[in-house]
């Protein structure tokens, strides 16, 4: 299963005491493949440094960059589907270009994608993704 994960979900999954730490554990057990682009990795770094220490940011990015279930891909077409927050388009563009199973986000700006017949992107919340993962494993 291949997924694109929005920054808000990554940030929520980092603290071991977080209720969303299961995302990190599922990734570590290679239950899914995390699809990344350079642009998304750059946003991750920026937001990780804002919320956590530089050391934590480096550790998270190192894990993501070297894990066997991380796939790097680059979208070459900009769909511009999310008008309410154009910065979110990088996640939608990567999801389309990589033909992922899910785009995981808790950001309501992505809801517009649920109304589109084409291109088809399956957007799920972090809680929904947890249900998907644990129902299959």
How would you describe what is shown here?
By secondary structure, the chain is of the alpha/beta class. It has a single domain (2-136), classed as 5'-nuclease (Rossmann fold, 3-Layer(aba) Sandwich). The chain has six helices and five strands; from the N terminus they run E-H-H-E-H-H-E-H-E-E-H. It has a five-stranded parallel sheet with strand order 3-2-1-4-5, sandwiched between helices. Helix 3 (38-51) packs antiparallel against helix 4 (54-66). The longest helix has 14 residues, at 38-51. It is globular. 26% of the residues are buried.
Task: Set out the fold topology.
Blueprint: E1 2-5, H1 7-13, H2 22-28, E2 33-36, H3 38-51, H4 54-66, E3 70-72, H5 89-98, E4 102-104, E5 123-124, H6 126-136
Helix pairs in contact: 3-4
Describe, in short, the structure shown.
The chain is an alpha/beta fold.
Protein traits:
137 residues; alpha/beta; Rossmann fold; globular
The dominant shape is: globular
Helix-strand topology string? EHHEHHEHEEH
Helix content, binned percent = 40-55%
Supply Rg: 14 Å
Tally of contiguous helical segments: 6
CATH architecture classification name: 3-Layer(aba) Sandwich
Separation, N- and C-terminal Cα atoms? 12 Å
Quickly name the level 1 CATH class: Alpha Beta
The tally of beta strands, per DSSP, is: 5
Low-confidence runs of at least 5 consecutive residues: none
CATH topology grouping: Rossmann fold
| Structural class label | alpha/beta
